[in-house]
């Protein structure tokens, strides 16, 4: 039996890498959900493509119904988005959620990099943290993903840290974050009820080298 996976925010760069990683997996049935479906890769002919808005309860409920895994990679009012997703998943009895937030939401970055990160992201960290809190309080089997500063490098190197551990890595490629997420989708028992930092190994410092 195939695993039904709903991708919310499917037009985003990380999400498109995820769907590329998964498209050859015959055991996964993808539904790609986005406000602007014309931005989706047209070669995703085997995927179901749904136009909708996560903040529209009818759109969201119709998309989540009968899914096995929900992967959300969104921008906007993160706390409201998380709240609507948790509510719809509870209503439809769907348990597995993968939700992308931001590094720094737990003040988990030590030293100068932590100071720099909070200065750069500023108050935007608050709704990301609120989103994580909403998900962590839920009854869902969640993985909260906290990527480092993102690059477009064509590489899939990554290492992970758990909530409560120091986050040191200053960058990671979108493709590497997607590789991690695709692995979780294919092995949904991994990193359950976990908040996971994702960064490129060995790249540590006071700020990303591209700043």
UniProtKB/TrEMBL annotation:
SUPFAM superfamilies: NAD(P)-binding Rossmann-fold domains. InterPro entries: NAD(P)-bd_dom (IPR016040), NAD(P)-bd_dom_sf (IPR036291). Transmembrane segments: none annotated. Residues 9-188 form the NAD(P)-binding domain. Signal peptide: none annotated. It holds the Pfam family NAD_binding_10. This is NAD-dependent dehydratase. The lineage of its organism: Bacteria, Pseudomonadati, Bacteroidota, Flavobacteriia, Flavobacteriales.
């Amino acid at each position: 039996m195939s695993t039904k996976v709903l991708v919310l925010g499917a037009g985003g760069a990380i999400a498109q890498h995820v769907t590329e990683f998964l498209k050859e997996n015959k055991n996964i049935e993808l539904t790609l959900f986005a406000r602007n479906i014309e931005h989706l890769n047209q070669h995703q002919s085997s995927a179901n493509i749904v136009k909708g808005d996560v903040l529209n309860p009818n759109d969201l409920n119709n998309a989540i119904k009968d899914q096995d895994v929900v992967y959300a990679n969104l921008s906007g009012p993160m706390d409201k988005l998380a709240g609507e997703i948790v509510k719809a998943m509870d209503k439809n009895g769907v348990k597995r959620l993968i939700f992308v937030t931001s590094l720094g939401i737990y003040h988990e970055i030590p030293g100068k990099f932590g100071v720099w990160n909070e200065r750069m992201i500023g108050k935007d960290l608050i709704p990301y943290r609120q989103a994580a809190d909403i998900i962590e309080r839920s009854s869902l089997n969640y993985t909260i993903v906290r990527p480092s500063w993102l690059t477009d490098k064509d590489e899939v190197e990554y290492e992970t840290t758990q909530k409560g551990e120091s986050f040191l890595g200053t960058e990671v490629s979108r493709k590497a974050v997607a590789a991690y997420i695709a692995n979780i989708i294919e092995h949904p028992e991994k990193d359950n009820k976990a908040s996971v930092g994702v960064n490129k190994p060995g790249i540590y410092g006071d700020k990303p080298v591209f700043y």
